[in-house]
Task: inverse folding
């Protein structure tokens, strides 16, 4: 399916590269789910986290360095961001999400959007790095586990509030 190669097309246009090194690039997420949302991708054609092995640990370190760089370039503070991978990515080419914790965005529209960043469907960089160091590969979550996480209640990421639907969650997030 061609939509799955959208990121690969995006990084072919130099105008889309906010940062570019020999090893990786940083782009803006086209449908940002927060005030700041960037993607860090390797230039090497690695489809996803499931193609990684221990040899890629230095590459991951480079991706993380660029994640920190883009936060600095934007004059933002590191603590107000989540940096990590989706346990079940949809788009091809390995990509590290760099997303601000406000989650204030008109593109945040569904429970799936929320839970993919705010449950264990989001694997923090450090956790994935450690997992890969130990196991030499990243395992897929069972389908039933993915379904369970996607259907979790809409719990706020900044307080104890649990929203009954997406409009009320979005209204709540604006108050933080
Ligand atoms: P994932 O679920 O980890 O595969 O996330 C893919 C991300 O890519 C999502 O956050 C999308 O908003 C973003 N996205 C989709 N198409 C494009 C594109 N052409 N350029 C930049 N970002 C995109
Ligand atoms: Zn809250």
Result:
């Amino acid at each position: 399916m061609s939509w799955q190669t959208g990121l690969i097309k995006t990084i072919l246009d130099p105008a889309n590269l906010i940062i570019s090194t020999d090893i990786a690039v940083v782009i803006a997420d086209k449908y940002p789910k927060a005030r700041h949302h960037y993607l860090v991708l390797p230039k090497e054609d690695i489809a996803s986290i499931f193609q990684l092995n221990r040899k890629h640990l230095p590459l991951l370190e480079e991706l993380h360095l660029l994640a920190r760089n883009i936060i600095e370039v934007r004059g933002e503070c590191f603590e107000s961001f989540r940096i990590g991978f989706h346990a079940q990515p949809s788009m091809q080419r390995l990509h590290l999400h760099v997303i601000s914790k406000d989650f204030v965005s008109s593109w945040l529209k569904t429970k799936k959007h929320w839970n993919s960043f705010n449950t264990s469907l989001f694997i923090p960089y450090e956790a994935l790095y450690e997992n890969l160091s130990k196991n030499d590969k990243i395992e897929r979550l069972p389908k039933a586990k993915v379904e369970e996480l996607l259907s979790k209640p809409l719990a706020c990421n900044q307080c104890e509030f649990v929203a009954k639907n997406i409009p009320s969650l979005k209204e709540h997030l604006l108050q933080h």
About this structure: The longest helix spans residues 57-73. The radius of gyration is 16 Å.
